[in-house]
Specification:
The complex is a heterotrimer of chains A (364), B (256) and C (505). Chain A is an alpha+beta fold and 364 residues long. Chain A contains ten helices and 18 strands. In chain A, strand 13 and strand 14 form a beta hairpin. Chain B has a domain of 140 residues: Pectate Lyase C-like, CATH 2.160.20.60. The chains are: A alpha+beta (364), B alpha/beta (256), C alpha/beta (505). The interface between A and C is large, with 49 and 47 residues.
């Protein structure tokens, strides 16, 4: 029986940029871009994820936490101290911004799993299980970012206001993704804003996942707990399951999430047919149904994907070593007035950017 | 937000710089100009402002430099809008009459419920173009796409004309999947190469007759002239005409 | 057999036959059609006369009377009103007093237990998620039944995993087991033809596979039941799947019963038993006394057919079916079929039919949840049956967690059955539950198949519309998606078991 009933559904806007050379840029560009998509949100949530922002501590897991109750931090730090070697603990720097109401306390910790603690688990799985535990412990704490040399920054308010609140113009990253929300339920729920992250994954999502209930029950079989009261959460966990744990190639994973129609499969060559049929049979519970445009990022790059009948907009562009993705072309033009190439990706076909010959091996 | 802008009207013409302007004050300016008798407006520095030319009536010629935001010319009745750049989603939603020209590509959901007027797109158009276009009392809407169109072209079409020319399509299909699904009126014409597998069973396909070509001629001429493409290039090709197989496609659906 | 004088019955007729004599044209169709002897033509008086005591309320005569002169009505109770001793109870007591026998009935539990499908409501999408129009946009109902691996493996970027055999269905329903002998060959043919045409499957039940039906083998699921009727290698090899029948919803815990009256030459040949002998399927499969024995049989069948067909295990919905199902999944079954207490039958003891077993809605929810908790839901596909009445029931079942639904009663009703429950007599006037060749002739397989195809076509469209209304365009996105259901009028406990929220939340 599910105790989490409320599910925030959002119309929204998203924008993303990355440098395939790994060149880092400040958050200024992405903030302006998402500001242009202001009307796609309603001020009830905004957020960003950036990669390459903690180069001096690139090997540590950077945990970003929200603390809702006066005793949350204490209780959480006890768990953290017990499970991790905490190299640095500090509040996340912010500035007051009109439009961003008072919210939870925001802290970040740079940690390593305590030696010998992980046992037969990989370090990643160890961190993942701690994150799941803290988030469902009911102590008013939420880990909203848990990757290395990357971080999510999100909260209540229009995205551009949230960006200024977190002083993102002071960070430099080689991947930036951003999102502004238009939720149809209105709790003051900072953790419900996008992006959703798990370890290295960050996902922003425009749309509604009508298969959420089924996706969620599938993920629960593998130990993922959906606690963020929003359907996007399942996307982050599905990516982690399919790509990191099951080791599927990227194209197979995106095919599972946005599977081609049977009649399209029937027109493919034999090998492709067999592959796609097997994917749809085995990963049927991972299919994302409903309208969506998604951008997900990891240390090695980012991917844009829309649902198989493209009910949500997604535009892509390239200039030199930069790849851009956004809900509207104008949002890209603000970051890059004269792209070399602008195009509309096909339904269900991923747009993939890799950093300097990167791959998913680092993720697995 | 900047303070209230003003503009100068000279012989019915004005220039509105829209750089960094929010769509509200921009559209107010446009409507104000029309109210003051403007016949020709040039709006420059446009990037993402929505609802331009929405609900505009009359004889206005509007030039847009940049990428206009969503829902350009929705509910428009009369004016002509020319975009120098790509355009986004929702152009000509329930447009009644007028002209929209895009020197570039356009996004999704173009001409939804369009009742009259013409939309000319130089390059490609996205998904769900021309849904439920309808004809009534002599008014017939038209959409011409110079390049490719995505899936669900002409879905639920009840009237009007869509022409897809396939310029610059390479070897990609000119129309996407589910073309004409639910079509029960109107016509879609595809130049040269039609991907039959993409055409809905609700549609019957025939090669263009002389009458059909006479129907298409004004649209081809308009496109050729507007985008400076040789007319011969457009005319010297076969055209495939897609029309509804029945005007009651779901007659047998119910058990009373 | 010694001479036996039946005791006199004091029971009034259950039905009365009303004839509007002004309309009656003395065509005598009713006399020909009634197989129970309730209609008789009197030469002398040129009148059609009815013997109400023989009427079973099957309405065959009424349906075929060309002038609609007939009206069959329940006989108003002659007894004083008594909520505890209803006329049904009084009737049963009298019949047992007259015969000393076990009360026997046909078709499924007809008692007024709650129907949980009717307490479940479906979602529809608005604004934040468009509904999808199934007439114009793709809507995928294709379903693969069979065991799925935990994951796919890739080697050098190529697929390295081979899947277990799967059954492909074009829509998530199949015809459930109805044995040849319980029904006649014409009905079997109709089911087979319709299943073939619609890209689904039909199930032979424990009656074996008549030689005329071998050409429909590819669309057949053959049953291996405790009586092993008609089970031999050809039978196994011609089918697309094999179902081990442990139990059925109408009579959990006891065996099948085909009365000797229905075992004619053809039935005898197909079941490979003597003519006129009762075909009794023992209660337990005598080679399965524990779960590891089941595993033995499953793999024996897989070995015998070289691992080319999925093996299904059918159980009745009973109290601990979640645990049983878990065991069955771990025993190597590819499909688990669960039959709820409303399941139909050609013959079952009335007490068992009406009092044993649980509703399929609970069994399904419990099994699906349990398999997920154990992380083994992917090892089996779940097929549920037992009173699936309409396409909405199918959609709700899938949302609760089923992969597909089994239909039997609904299919027979589509062909003409009126649920008069006289199946054990073998005198079915509609020509369905009878092997009497004169009666069986009343079913034209082509016509019956057309009716079944119509039924499935209508349901297919309805399922697509309901899915579309929820903003879903592929059936797998509804499977187990209990958030698309809400319940009304259920207790907290029931909500808990079903895993469904109450309407309003």
């Amino acid at each position: 029986m599910y105790d989490v009933t409320a599910r925030n559904i959002s119309g929204c806007g998203l924008s993303a940029l990355m440098s395939e050379e790994g060149r880092r840029v400040s958050g200024e560009a992405i903030i302006s871009s998402i500001a242009l998509l202001h009307d796609r949100g309603n001020g009830m949530g905004g957020g960003f994820a950036a990669y390459g922002i903690y180069p001096e501590r690139a090997e540590d897991y950077a945990l970003h936490l929200m603390y809702y109750r006066p005793d949350s931090r204490d209780r959480t730090e006890r768990i953290l101290d017990d499970s991790f070697d905490v190299r640095l603990a500090e509040p996340i720097p912010t500035r007051p911004v009109e439009g961003v109401p008072a919210g939870p306390a925001l802290w970040r910790y740079f940690v390593q799993p305590r030696p010998g603690r992980a046992g037969t688990q990989s370090k990643d799985d160890y961190v993942l299980s701690l994150v799941m535990r803290i988030n469902s412990e009911g102590i008013g704490s939420y880990v909203f970012s848990s990757g290395k040399n990357m971080g999510a920054f999100k909260g209540l308010g229009y995205a551009e206001d949230v960006g200024r609140f977190y002083r993102l113009e002071e960070y430099e990253g080689y991947i930036w993704i951003a999102h502004g929300r238009f939720p149809t339920n209105t709790p003051g729920w900072w953790a419900g804003a996008h992006p959703f992250t798990l370890l290295d994954w960050a996902v922003v999502h425009n749309g509604e996942i009508s298969s959420y209930g089924g996706n969620r029950r599938y993920l629960e079989m593998f130990g993922y707990r959906c606690t963020m009261q929003t359907d996007t959460e399942v996307v982050a966990y599905l990516l982690d399951l399919l790509i990191r744990r099951h080791g599927l190639p990227l194209e197979a994973a995106t095919a599972a999430l946005a599977a081609p129609f049977w009649h399209r499969i029937a027109a493919m060559d034999k090998d492709q047919q067999a592959l796609m049929t097997a994917i749809r049979q085995v990963y049927a519970p991972a299919l994302l149904n409903g309208p969506f445009a998604i951008v997900f990022a990891h240390a090695g790059g980012m991917v844009g994907l829309s649902d198989r009948i493209k009910l949500r907009p997604l535009v892509a562009a390239r200039k030199d070593d930069f790849l851009f993705l956004a809900s509207e072309e104008a949002a890209i033009r603000l970051m890059c007035p004269q792209p070399d190439l602008v195009w509309a990706p096909e339904a269900g076909e991923p747009v993939v950017g890799w950093v300097r010959g990167g791959s998913l091996e680092g993720v697995r | 937000m900047r303070e209230r802008q003003t503009f100068t009207l000279r012989e019915g013409r004005a220039h509105l710089p829209a750089d960094n302007m929010h769509y509200r004050p921009l559209n107010e300016l446009v409507h104000a100009a029309v109210a003051r008798g403007a016949t020709h407006l040039r709006v420059s520095g446009v990037n993402g402002q929505r609802y331009l030319a929405d609900g505009l009536r009359g004889d206005l010629a509007l030039e847009i430099e940049g990428v206009p935001g969503n829902d350009l010319a929705a509910f428009m009745d009369g004016p002509s809008v020319e975009v120098f750049g790509n355009a986004q989603d929702g152009i000509g939603n329930t447009m009644n009459s007028g002209l929209v020209v895009v020197h570039g590509s356009a996004g999704d959901v173009i001409g939804y419920g369009m009742r009259g007027g013409t939309i000319l797109i130089r390059d490609h158009a996205g998904y769900r173009v021309g849904i439920h276009m309808k004809e009534y009392a002599g008014s017939r809407p038209t959409i011409v796409v110079g390049g490719r169109a995505g899936a669900f072209l002409g879905e639920y079409m009840a009237g009007g004309l869509i022409v897809v020319l396939g310029l610059g399509a390479g070897d990609r299909p000119l129309v996407g999947d589910f073309c004409g699904t639910g079509m029960h009126g109107g016509t879609i014409a595809v130049r040269g190469r039609l991907e039959e597998a993409h055409v809905s069973p609700h549609v019957r396909v025939s090669e263009a007759t002389d009458e059909d070509r006479a129907l298409l001629a004004p649209q081809l001429e308009a496109y050729a002239e507007r985008f400076e493409v040789p007319l011969a290039l457009l005319e010297d090709e076969r055209y495939w005409m897609l029309r509804p197989a029945s005007n009651r496609p779901y007659g047998n659906k119910y058990a009373i | 057999m010694t001479t036996y004088t039946p005791l006199r019955s004091y029971l009034p007729p259950r039905f009365r036959v009303y004839r509007d004599d002004a309309r009656c044209i003395r065509c005598r169709a009713c006399e020909t059609q009634c197989s129970f002897g309730a209609q008789r033509y009197d030469e002398e008086d040129d009148l059609l006369l009815a013997d109400d005591g023989q009427c079973v309320g099957c309405h065959r005569c009424e349906a075929l009377c060309p002038t609609r002169a007939l009206r069959i009505e329940p006989n108003p109770s002659a007894y004083r009103e008594n909520a505890n001793w209803t006329s049904r109870d009084i009737r049963n007591l009298n019949r047992q007093a007259e015969t000393g026998g076990v009360l026997l009935s046909g078709m499924g539990n007809d008692r007024p237990y709650p129907i949980y499908w009717d307490h479940l409501l479906l979602d529809a999408s608005q604004v934040t998620n468009p509904s999808i129009d199934p007439l114009r946009e793709p809507m995928e109902l294709r379903t693969y039944l069979g065991s799925k691996p935990d994951r796919l493996e890739f080697a050098d970027g190529r697929l390295a995993t081979a899947l277990e055999p799967q059954l492909m269905l074009e829509m998530p329903v199949m015809f459930s087991a109805i044995s040849y002998g319980a029904i006649n060959l014409n009905v079997c043919k109709a089911l087979a033809m319709a299943a073939s045409q619609m890209g689904i499957r039909w199930n032979t039940g424990e009656g074996g596979l008549h030689e005329d039906l071998y050409r429909y083998g590819q669309s057949a699921i053959v049953q291996v039941a405790s009586g092993r009727f008609g089970v031999h290698l050809d039978y196994l090899e011609t089918a697309s799947a094999i179902e081990i029948k442990i139990g059925q919803g109408a009579k959990p815990g006891i065996g099948g019963h085909l009365p000797g009256e229905k075992v004619n030459e053809a039935v005898s040949a197909t079941r490979m038993i003597p003519v006129g002998s009762d075909a009794l399927s023992p209660a337990p499969q005598h080679d399965i006394y524990s779960i590891e024995d089941l595993r033995l049989l499953i793999f024996a069948l897989k070995e015998a057919t070289r691992y080319t067909k999925p093996v299904s295990v059918k159980i009745a919905a009973v109290h601990n079916c979640a645990a049983i199902a878990s065991g069955i999944a771990r025993a190597g079954a590819d499909i688990i079929a669960i039959d709820g207490f409303r399941g139909g039958t050609g013959a079952a003891p009335t007490m068992i039919r009406d009092n044993v077993g649980i509703p399929i809605e609970f069994a399904l929810a419990a099994v699906d949840s349990r398999l997920r908790e154990e992380g083994i839901r992917n090892r089996v596909s779940l097929v549920v049956g037992g009173g699936i009445r309409c396409s909405a029931d199918v959609v709700k079942a899938i949302a609760l967690g089923a992969d597909a639904c089994y239909l039997a009663t609904a299919a027979l009703i589509a062909i003409g059955c009126t649920l008069c429950q006289q199946c054990p007599t073998g005198k079915c006037a509609w020509g369905i539950a009878t092997n009497d060749p004169l009666l069986a002739r009343r079913i034209n397989p082509e016509v019956a198949a057309e009716r079944l195809v119509n039924l499935l076509t209508g349901w297919e469209m309805e399922i697509k519309e309901m899915l579309g209304g929820m903003g879903i365009n592929a059936i797998e996105s509804l499977r187990g998606n209990r958030l698309r259901l809400r319940a009304i009028g259920l207790t907290d406990r029931e909500l808990d078991i079903l895993g469904v929220l109450p309407a309003g939340q």
